[in-house]
Write a structure and sequence with these properties.
By secondary structure, the protein is α+β, with helices and mostly antiparallel strands. It is built from 2 helices and 5 strands, in the order βααββββ. A hairpin with a 7-residue loop joins strand 2 and strand 3. The longest helix has 16 residues. The protein is globular, with a radius of gyration of 12 Å.
Length: about 80
């Protein structure tokens, strides 16, 4: 599998705090190795058929779709509480 970054994702990641950026790169490695890794808590996003969400930190999530051999990264945002 490989990661494919949307323009929106690139922009959101650049605007995220440095700690979140570092955490995302760690989590992206886990996604590539094992999408069921417990720290990702990856799950289908409610209300969207093909959209998934995974944890970056306690307060941040990233959103992606899965197509053939790629994780298409859509966005990374602060998680609403």
């Amino acid at each position: 599998m490989r990661l494919v970054f949307s323009k929106r994702f690139d922009r959101s990641l650049r605007e995220a705090p440095q700690a979140v950026q570092r955490a995302f790169w760690k989590q992206s490695e886990l996604l590539l190795l094992d999408p069921r890794h417990p720290s990702l808590r990856a799950k289908k996003y409610e209300g969207a058929d093909k959209l998934w969400q995974a944890r970056v930190t306690r307060d941040w999530r990233f959103y992606f779709t899965v197509e053939r051999d790629a994780y298409n990264l859509i966005d990374i945002t602060a998680h609403p509480k």
